[in-house]
Amino acid sequence: MTNQRTIIGALIALATGLTILGVAHAAAEPALSAASTKTINDAAPKPTSSTADHTKFEVLQAEFKSGPEVTKACLTCHTEAAKQVHLSKHWTWEYKNPDTGQVLGKKHVINNFCTAVASNEDHCSACHIGYGWADDKFDFTVQENVDCLVCHDTTGAYKKLPGLAGHPNYETMEWPPKSGRLRPPTDLKKVAQNVGQTSRKTCGACHFRGGGGDAVKHGDLDSSLETPQRYLDVHMDADGLDFACSKCHVTDAHEVPGSRYAPTTTDTNGAQMRGSKKIRNPVTCQACHGSAPHGKADAKLNDHTKKIACQTCHIPAYARGPRHAKMSWDWSTAGKLDEHGTRIKTRNSIGKVEYDSNKGHFTYDRYVIPEYQWFNGKVKYTLFGDQIDASNVVKINEFLGGPEDPDARIWPVRVFRGKQMYDKGLNTLAVLHTAGNDDTAYWKNYDWDKALAAGMKAVGAEYSGSMGFVATEMSWPITHMVAPKEDALKCEQCHAKGGRLAGIDGAYIPARDRIVAMDMAGFSLALLALISVLVHGAMRIFVSSKNKD
Amino acid sequence: MQRIYIFKRFERFWHWSQAMLIMFMMLTGFEIHGTYTWFGFQRAVAYHTSAAWVLITLWIFAIFWHFTTGEWKQYKPTMEKAAAVLRYYLTGIFTNAPHPFRQSTLTKHNPLQRLAYLFVKLVINPLIWLTGLLYLFYGSWSSWGLSWLSLEWIAMGHVIGAFLMLIFFIAHVYLATVGHTPTAHIKAMVTGWEEID
Ligand code: HEM
Q1: pLDDT, tens digit, for every residue of A452-501?
Q2: Which residue of A lies nearest to B164 if distances are taken between CA atoms?
Q3: What is the mean pLDDT of chain B?
Q4: Rounded Cα gap, residues A173 and A165, in angstroms
Q5: Is the pLDDT of residue A545 over 70?
Q6: Which of chain A's residues have a Cβ under 8 Å away from the Cβ of B139?
Q7: Residues B2-31: tens digit of each pLDDT
Q8: What per-residue confidence (pLDDT) applies to A7?
Q9: Would you say B166 and A526 are in contact if contact means Cβ atoms under 8 Å apart?
Q10: Is the pLDDT of residue A142 over 70?
């Protein structure tokens, strides 16, 4: 009885098994043939990663007359966007350093390029993410003053022009000035319907062109990064990883991390896991690579992270693309005019402006080897009103940290050198009214006193009437243009006398360093031993040859 | 003339491989030190590090051998005849005086050799090991609670060890030629058999 049941059970099981197998086989077959002929997948259109097609939105069908009108339309759906932007450094141009208490940001610092924003807002605000910042009366609380398009344009047709207080041109306009070329009005409808994520091009519109032009300011950011090769930047490589800026500058609520005002110079964390609640700067190399990224064969390199920033080896030079970085700016020679009293502009053999009456003398360089220094992320600025010592080089910003500081690492730094205006009476760096269509603007009348009086007034000071030029240095941490590993520094470039780190104190670098007295003693004793044995040997030979006679 | 078997097979293997390794370590070590450029720093470090592991392995075997065979006793220091041997090398050797020391399987080394080799084994080698390993594991110092160490001091100790080794090496190579013929001792270290009067 039981036996019989078992047999029947087994048979049923067998039959079921075979059926399942058969069905599975049948199901597998069509899938297999589909894969081999590639019909279904090919026909399917590739979806865009965005879930919204802005050309289909009714509010964007309007014939927009101005930027703020577009913003109003954006805000009908993105209700919180402007409020977020209002809190960001991109909007406020203001940053209070929690360590030093210094109030920084573009609005407040004086640099050694065009020097200061105050009194020149309508020009400088071509790089402000807002509309209408023409002077100190700009209302920072108005939502539709936020410029969404400058960051979210994907057409490349949107351009804010200096002198328009942050607006693009709404009418036909000669651009560049005196070029004879006409720029048609901005097609706001088309731009608005084609918004998307930020890109190297949108970020670069300002950040590649800081200081008034391409490759002027950062040294490691210029327009060659719009479509770089792997050689120039291993992450942004247009044919490879093709990172947008935001891939590293992971942005939340419109506040873009990775500011130079208080950079993270040392990150001893491992790679950041998705979902990790740890509050940390997401832009560091370590945020993705961890702090021991070299494989077993190169394990010695991981030891270097105790003292050295990743950038030091992995960015062997800046301005590694085709663009020449501006290296110095000497305001003290500005203002020379030709015999007709008009502006002079001379160019060097590579076509770069060498002298400009408006600005003075410039120098340029490419493939620039950075300077190296200990840096712990703390920066001290020389702000307007700070007393300076004009007989010495004034540090616009000083990178702090030394070898004993556990938070300091050796960093590659671009040092931009110049000579610029200071007020001799007040003994402070000066604010110059450069651009504008008025009688006091320096670029209009080349009158230092008038332009300085106007500039200083804009920051609530009174120009003493006596000005001079002071040598200044401004430091920029080098962190972009990361080379492929084949192009990273080789050991010998630091482990040698006179190598890259020749000027670094407080670290023992094999092959660079030695204790001279010990070397002298060691080699002298070894030489003495050698001479002794040679004399001893010679005497033995001499004696034995005499014995033979 | 009598022949005695002094150096066993392992001992000879150990001696010559150690000799090669130490020469190579000095060569690569002083390049790392920046005395000259030959392999290039990167390769010098890689070679030095690999050779270090081989040398350490060899030393471990050698130590094991010394203790299991009792041969370590060959290095027990003695002052007996030490002055006589010294006098022999300073004067006697030039007047054909007889060597004051007679080699045997139980006492392979003369008193000066014993002292010199003991110094190598108890001072130079440990110094090089210790500083070399610390140097190598610089990255682990903080996790080993050794953050207070300074790389400069460790390197200094290692370089002192290297200089002592260099001086020993010069003297040792020369003294290898002072047998009853210039190559007698060297042959003995190759074949194991020493000829003694
Ligand atoms: C006869 C044996 C050896 C000699 C003559 C020797 C010699 C040297 C010298 C002269 C240096 C350069 C030091 C400086 O300028 O800072 C050096 C570096 C070094 N040695 Fe040795 N050494 C020997 C054995 C060892 C051993 C056994 C080890 C490891 C366990 C070792 C590990 C190292 C390391 C890690 C370095 C530093 C390499 C670097 O810069 O990363 N050495 N050696």
Answers
A1: 999 999 999 999 999 999 999 999 999 999 999 999 999 999 999 999 99
A2: A522
A3: 93
A4: 15
A5: yes
A6: 299-300, 302-303, 306
A7: 888 999 999 999 999 999 999 999 999 999
A8: 56
A9: yes
A10: yes
Cα dihedral: A223, A221, A291, A509 (round 10): 130
Token pair 């099981």 is found at A13
Nearest chain B residue to A301 by CA: give it.
B139
Q: Looking at this predicted complex, what is its ipTM?
A: 0.94
What count of residues does chain B have? 197
- Annotate A445-472 with three-state secondary structure: HCCHHHHHHHHHHHCCCCCCCCEEEEEE
Helix axes B125-136, B41-69, angle to 10 degrees: 130
Q: How many helices, marked H, and strands, marked E, lie in chain B?
A: 7, 2
Which among B94, B95, B155 is the nearest to A510, CB-wise? B155
- Name A51's bridge partners: none
pTM: 0.89
Contact A257, A249 (CB under 8 A): yes
Ligand 1 is surrounded, with C-beta below 6 A, by A 300, 510; B 22, 25-26, 29-30, 32-33, 45, 48-49, 52, 55-56, 128-129, 132-133, 135-136, 155, 158-159, 162, 165
Mark yes or no for CB contact A300/B45 under 8 Å.
Answer: yes
Interface contact B91, partner A, CB < 8 A:
no
Reported as half-sphere exposure (CB side, CA atoms, 13 A), residue A377 has a value of 18
Distance separating alpha carbons of residues A150 and A140, to the nearest angstrom? 17
Residues in A touching B41 (Cβ below 8 Å): 491-492, 495-496, 510-511
Give yes or no for A531 touching B (CB within 8 A): no
- H or E, element range at A138: none
Pick out chain B residues at pLDDT < 50.
none
Query: Domains plus CATH for chain B?
Result: 14-98+107-178 (1.20.950)
Percent of chain A with pLDDT over 70: 92
A327-A377-A118 Cα angle (round to 5): 55
Per-residue confidence (pLDDT) for residue A431, from 0 to 100: 97
Instruction: Please give the average per-residue pLDDT across A94-122, as a whole number.
Output: 95
pLDDT at A250 over 90: yes
- Listed residue (A418, A420, A450, A421) closest to A436, CA to CA: A450
Tell me which residue has tokens 């945020």.
A287
Q: Which ranges constitute the DSSP H helices of A89-211?
A: 89-92, 121-124, 149-152, 188-193, 200-207
* Residues in B touching A491 (Cβ below 8 Å): 40-42, 45
Give yes or no for residue A247 having a pLDDT over 90: yes
Burial of residue A510, with CB atoms counted within 10 A of its CB: 0-12 exposed, 13-18 middle, 19 or more buried:
buried
DSSP codes of every residue in B161-173:
HHHHHHHHHHHHH
Cα–Cα distance measured from residue A105 to residue A110, given in angstroms and rounded to the nearest whole number: 10
Q: Where are the domains of chain A?
A: 54-97+115-258, 325-493, 514-549
Q: Please, which residues bridge with residue A414 across strands?
A: A476
A329 φ, ψ (degrees, to nearest 5): -145, 115
Helices and strands in chain A: count of H runs, count of E runs: 16, 15
Angstrom distance (rounded) from CA A57 to CA A55: 6
Contact A104, A260 (CB under 8 A): no
β strands within A216-280, DSSP E: none
Would you call B39 helix, strand, or coil by DSSP? coil
Q: For residue A421, how many other CB atoms are within 10 A of its CB?
A: 24
Query: A526, B34: Cβ pair inside 8 Å?
Result: no
Which residue bears the tokens 């990663």? A49
Terminal-residue alpha carbon distance, chain B: 5
First to last CA, chain A: 120
